[in-house]
């Protein structure tokens, strides 16, 4: 019965029906009062209702049952970080590590706390400690990769993402990230190879599809433009609200000499980008206007 209530409550929460979700999770709690996961679900309801203090209370209730509960600890330290209470985040995760010093997930979370305070060296140390404990803890490799990207150490980032695909050869996201880093370094052949590998493992890897289509379009001889059209169309179909995807499709059409279709898509890219910029109070990208101008010339 508790599992059914949790499933129903989770569905209600996805629909932003927090009243129903809270009722279902409270009944689940009554059925299994020692379930840390139910408290985590209640914390999610509280957060959806902007009741941060209540969410913290629910997370702490979960940790009273399971002092190393990953979702509770992560939720709690994220809230503390948002409130600039980093010392409390450190204290809470240290408490858990003291009781379970060889828990890789806890050292991963400790690394995240250091990341919040931009202490890259300490964060790296904790992520490495997690991997010493469990060499298959893929989240730590991802965290190291992101850390090195953020500190402009692309070679080291690629090395960490490569370790992910060594452990999980079917990890399309890691291949995509390697492809993006190689693309930034202008290693075009390596980027293409990794995007192809990503799509071989996940045909719905939209960033790989979009970026591969772009490379085919701007580097003649590296790929087939008909294939570029198919890839770009698939990315736009999956994510029509991403202006860079629409722009790629328009540019591929332009390279194929389909100028009418190119102008249509490039106009759409400009419109989508301007709409998004208005919503976020950002600045529209001049690149999309430039591409449209070229197509209309």
CATH superfamily of the domain at 205-297: Tetratricopeptide repeat domain
Largest sheet: none
Low-confidence stretches: none
Overall shape: it is globular
How far apart lie the N and C ends?
66 Å
Quaternary: single chain
Briefly note the structural class of the backbone: mainly alpha
CATH C-level name of the domain at 205-297 = Mainly Alpha
Task: Summarize model confidence as the mean pLDDT.
Answer: 94
What is the second-level CATH architecture of the domain at 205-297? Alpha Horseshoe
Helix content: over 70%
Report Rg.
23 Å
- What is the number of helices? 17
Question: What is the chain-wise order of helices and strands?
Answer: HHHHHHHHHHHHHHHHH
Approximately what portion of the residues adopt beta-strand conformation?
Answer: under 5%
CATH fold topology of the domain at 205-297: Serine Threonine Protein Phosphatase 5, Tetratricopeptide repeat
Q: How many strands? A: 0
Task: Write up what this structure looks like.
- It is a single chain.
- This protein is mostly helical.
- Among the domains are: 135-203, Serine Threonine Protein Phosphatase 5, Tetratricopeptide repeat (Alpha Horseshoe); 205-297, Serine Threonine Protein Phosphatase 5, Tetratricopeptide repeat (Alpha Horseshoe), CATH 1.25.40.
- Helix content is 79%, strand content 0%.
- The chain has 17 helices and no strands.
- The radius of gyration is 23 Å and the shape is globular.
What topology emerges from the helices and strands here?
Layout: H1 2-14, H2 18-31, H3 36-48, H4 52-65, H5 70-82, H6 86-99, H7 104-116, H8 120-133, H9 138-150, H10 154-167, H11 172-184, H12 188-201, H13 206-218, H14 225-238, H15 243-255, H16 259-280, H17 286-296
Helix pairs in contact: 1-2, 2-3, 3-4, 4-5, 5-6, 5-7, 6-7, 7-8, 8-9, 9-10, 10-11, 11-12, 12-13, 13-14, 13-15, 14-15, 15-16, 16-17
């Amino acid at each position: 019965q508790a599992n059914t209530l949790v499933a129903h409550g989770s569905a209600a929460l996805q629909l932003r029906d927090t009243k129903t979700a809270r009722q279902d999770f409270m009944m689940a709690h009554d059925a299994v009062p020692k379930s840390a996961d139910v408290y985590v679900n209640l914390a999610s309801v509280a957060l959806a209702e902007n009741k941060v203090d209540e969410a913290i209370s629910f997370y702490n209730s979960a940790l009273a049952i399971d002092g190393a509960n990953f979702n509770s600890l992560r939720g709690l330290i994220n809230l503390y970080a948002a409130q600039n209470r980093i010392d409390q985040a450190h204290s809470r995760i240290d408490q858990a590590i003291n009781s379970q010093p060889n828990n890789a997930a806890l050292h991963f979370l400790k690394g995240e706390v250091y990341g919040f305070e931009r202490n890259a060296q300490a964060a790296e140390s904790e992520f490495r400690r997690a991997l010493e404990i469990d060499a298959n803890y893929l989240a730590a490799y991802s965290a190291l990769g992101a850390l090195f990207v953020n500190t402009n150490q692309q070679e080291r980032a690629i090395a960490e993402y490569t370790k992910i695909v060594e452990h999980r050869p079917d990890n399309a996201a890691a291949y995509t990230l390697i492809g993006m880093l190689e693309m930034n370094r202008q290693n075009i052949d390596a980027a293409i190879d990794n995007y192809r590998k990503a799509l071989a493992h996940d045909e719905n890897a939209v960033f790989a599809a979009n970026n591969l289509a772009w490379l085919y379009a701007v580097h003649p001889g590296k790929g087939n433009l008909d294939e570029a059209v198919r890839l770009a169309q698939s990315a736009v179909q999956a994510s029509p609200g991403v202006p860079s995807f629409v722009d790629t499709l328009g540019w591929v059409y332009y390279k194929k000499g389909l100028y009418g279709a190119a102008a249509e898509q490039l106009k759409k890219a400009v419109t989508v980008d301007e709409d998004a910029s208005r919503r976020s109070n950002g600045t529209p990208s001049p690149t999309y206007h430039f591409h449209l101008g070229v197509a209309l010339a």
